[in-house]
Specification:
Blueprint (H helix, E strand, L loop, with lengths): L1 H8 L1 H27 L7 E9 L4 E8 L2 E8 L7 E10 L4 E4 L14 E3 L8 E3 L9 E3 L4 E2 L4 H6 L3 E2 L4 E4 L2 E4 L13 E8 L1
Antiparallel strand pairs: 1-4, 1-13, 2-3, 3-6, 4-5, 7-13, 8-11, 9-10, 11-12
Length: about 200
Amino acid sequence: MALKNFIKENFVLAVGLALPVLLVVLFFAASALPKSMAVPPQYEMLFTETRYDSQSPYNIDFFVKDGALKARVWKVAQPGAMVNRKKLMAYDGKTQSVREIPYDVSKLDNVPNMTEISLDEFKNMKVDGSDKAPDGYEFENGGYGYGYGGLATDIFGGGYRSSTPRITKGAAAFKILNNSNNYYGYDIQFLGWVIQK
């Protein structure tokens, strides 16, 4: 009874204390529910990330052409020089994990510079290079910066946008987190969606 009487006598104070807690719960539910209720992405997303490498004799740039994963290859001008080598990565939305896809460059000895090739590891892979996957998900690269976030940022301050890349469909968003922390948002180059391995 004492609590009931306190609330009656201090109604404005009670509302003032309860409102921020209620707002936090509502914002959390609004951000967590769409993801928990959404069907996870059904297609792996391919992307490259840039790494400094002094061991590779080749620079390789990946791209999607006619439903196939291709590579453009050229020799490093000076052996042992640091180069920005592209590592091929895949994000699996079902398990929310990132993995590196290895490829072998040891057979590229006499390939002329800037030649477009299909590496043996990916000859049977079918890739959709569209911005939107067949299941409706899209890639967002994030990026550092500030932007207007609506009422929430007016109340709580900020407006900062995360640099974490993600794939989204409607209100559902899945962050692409790489446990190695070896990439940043601006290093990622989206390639496409794996339709067939």
